[in-house]
Amino acid sequence: MKFRLYPTKTQEILLLEHCGHARYVYNMGLEQRNMYRKAFGPTPNYNAQSAQLTEVRKDSWLKEGVYIVQQQALRDLDQGFRNWHNGTHGHPTFRKAGHNEGFRIVGLAAKRFERMSRKRARVNIPKIGWVDWRWTRNPGAIKSYRVTLDRAGCWWIAFAVIPKPIPAPGNGKIVGIDRGVAQSFTMSTGEVVKIPGLSAVEQQRMLHLKRKLSRQKPGSNRHKKTKLLISKLEHRRVNRSIDAVEKLTTRLAGSFDIIRIENLKIKNMTKSAKGTLTNPGKNVKAKSGLNREIRKNGWGRCDRRFQDKIGDRLEKINPVNTSIRCNVCTFTDTKNRKSQAEFECLLCEHAENADVNAAKNIAAGHVVFSRGGLELSRPVSRVPQLLLQ
Ligand SMILES: [Zn+2]
Fold first, then answer.
1. Ligand 1: distance of its center to the CA of 377 in Å?
2. Which tens digits make up the pLDDT trace of 325-377?
3. What distance in Å separates the CA atoms of residue 357 and residue 225, rounded to the nearest whole number?
4. N or C: which end of the chain has fewer CB within 10 A?
5. Three-class SS state of 206
6. How far is the CA of 336 from the centre of ligand 1 (A)?
């Protein structure tokens, strides 16, 4: 969301100074990366450069400037390199004075703004103070903003916003979601959503490209070209996955009052495979295979997007026994699970797809039995059984 910014003459000089600092740090970082690439191979990443910036700032003129402005310039540079690696953009180039002038403010400093009248608002920019901007609509919850100067000499402020949460439909409906490797997402309604990956043809092509890459000489032009083709294909897969998760989370957020998922420590699950030096992971190969699947299926993204879109309408359920408990009679036994796909209760003979059974247990936010004791994942549901879908 972009708005016209109206600095005074004095403020304009200060804004240009911020732009200058951002440009200087950006170009310095780029030069360093370019140099390293030619001389040593691996280039210093964002964290390394950010640490260096802190060092350099201790005794140089840079300390006169605003730290966030300079740090975010390195972030921009890092993003530029990421885009280049992903094959969506060209290699980052040096910034020139008068071209694409701008800087970014993030965090708490980005939240200092207020509306003055119907058409006027102001933002408090670090080391500059209150600068007026033209209010045309409500920017909402702000994450960060970027101030830019266009070629016509006009200043702009563009806000990056946290999207507004989706309102509850108010129908009292609850849905449980079971996340599996094979099927990705199974809803307690019986619906299954699979996050698309690459098509069979594309997978073949990926395999072919990877074999080709391993035969080519690293650093050669052919090697580079193959690498670019691989990253383009990979990028296509990631975009598809993001798109599917966006659609799924928006649709469910608008159709159910409460969404329940298992409280899985995804970060731990994906991190722990390799273990630490003193505590090496067990079964590393199998686990990292699972981890790859989890990342591919967008579990983490799904969690985050639900968090953004519905806030506390998302409920996390204790995952213990959800896959082996009968959702009809609550009898819990590992033998209930006949196979990966089949569930058949030993007590009441209720038979169902195993993932759907698990999703229904999750929807119920049920009492789970573990280690001989009663464990309440949450207060027993107040919602009548009929409403559970
Ligand atoms: Zn049963």
1. 20
2. 999 998 999 999 988 889 999 999 999 999 999 999 999 885 444 333 344 44
3. 48
4. N
5. helix
6. 9
